[in-house]
Design goal:
single chain, about 280 residues, alpha+beta, 4-stranded mixed beta sheet, 10 strands, about 20% strand, globular
């Protein structure tokens, strides 16, 4: 709120008070004008006070900015879901039964049980470093191998991301991050463009980490890209330990995805595309 100061102090006993008030210019960036009260307002009761989180402030900033143009005239603003952008998917086949729920505006809650311990560990990285709430429950034919469960979990996560992103208004769209883990260094760059593409360049030294087939890392990201409509580039800059290379990949992916899904206050709720649309087609 901008309250330009008067050149002379207000004198409420003077007849010139009204002229000072008339010349006072009040500019606000909210949809409701709040009258200025000069008497003391009591503080709210402790149980009615609200502590604003950084995400609350970010959403409020975007909403306010999108309602008023630079010249003060109103423009249409798309509503922002203050309850969080959530995608929820259930995928059932003859091979697997997968349930996924992801909140892009979460706090990093990880709750994954896929029957594949190493994959659960990687999904924990996605939640923790992306600050997403990730809930994944899966059962599958892991008595054969981990392939079908790994694939279907990734397909469901990609679909949940697609749902949570909606029309993608106001987001950064692009994300770029390099994550080190000891000797390993992985670079991830992504675009929530609506066009699925994976460019994958990892050299994982061993065929397995524990019981997890390391070939499934590429298959995981390819499946996720296919259903989310994401362009994803993964590059290994250094690394000799298989566990480190894979974990650094998931961490870098989580941070890049976090960047891309967060709101850009300057965009004012508009779609980040010169075409005016971001879709799977």
């Amino acid at each position: 709120m901008e309250l330009p100061a008067c050149h002379h102090p207000l004198n409420f006993s003077s007849t010139t008070t009204s002229s000072h008030l008339v010349n006072t210019r009040v500019t606000v960036s909210q949809t409701t004008l709040i009258p200025i009260r000069f008497h003391h307002q009591p503080s709210p009761a402790p149980h009615l006070r609200h502590s604003f989180t950084p995400m609350d402030v970010q959403r409020a900033t975007i909403a306010g900015a999108s309602l008023v143009e630079d010249n003060g005239s109103p423009e249409t603003s798309s509503p922002i879901n203050i309850g969080g952008r959530i995608g929820e998917v259930k995928r059932v086949t003859k091979e697997t039964n997968v349930s996924v729920r992801i909140n892009l505006d979460g706090s990093g809650v990880a709750d994954s049980s896929t029957g594949i311990p190493f994959l659960d560990h990687m999904l924990d990285q996605l939640a923790s470093h992306g600050l997403f709430d990730v809930h994944v429950k899966a059962t599958g034919d892991i008595h054969i191998d981990d392939h079908h469960t790994n694939e279907d979990v990734a397909l469901a996560i990609g679909t949940a991301l697609l749902q949570a992103l909606g029309d993608r208004k106001g987001i950064n769209r692009f994300g770029d991050f390099s994550a080190p883990l000891d000797e390993a260094l992985i670079h991830v760059s992504l675009d929530l463009s609506g066009r699925p593409h994976l460019s994958y360049d990892l050299c994982i030294p061993t065929e397995r980490v524990g019981t997890y087939d390391t070939q499934l890392v590429e298959h995981f990201f390819q499946s996720l890209v296919n259903t989310s409509g994401m362009t994803l580039h993964i590059r290994q800059l250094a690394g000799k330990n298989s566990h480190h290379v894979i974990e650094a990949t998931f961490k870098a992916f989580a941070r890049a995805l976090r960047q891309a899904t967060e709101y850009d206050p300057r965009r004012r709720g508009s779609i980040p595309s010169s075409k005016g649309v971001l879709s799977r087609t």
